Amino acid sequence: MRRYLQAEFYKLFHRNYARLILLAIPLLVVCYLAIMVSVNLRSTYDPWSFHGVMNLSSELLLLGFLATLIVCDLVFAGQYRRGTLKNEVSYGIPRSRTYLGKLMAQVVTSVVLCVITVALLVGLSWILFPHEGFPLIDRVPNDQLTARFLLEFLYELAVAFPLFLGVQAAACCLFFLFRYDIAAAGALVFLVEFLDDVIVWFFSVVAPSRAELALAVDRFVDSWLPREVLARVQLGLDFSAWWRGDPTAALESIRQGWLAGAVWFVLFTAIGLTAFRRREIR
Question: Which of 29, 57, 104, 129 is the 20 to 30 A CA-CA neighbour of 67?
Answer without folding.
Answer: 129
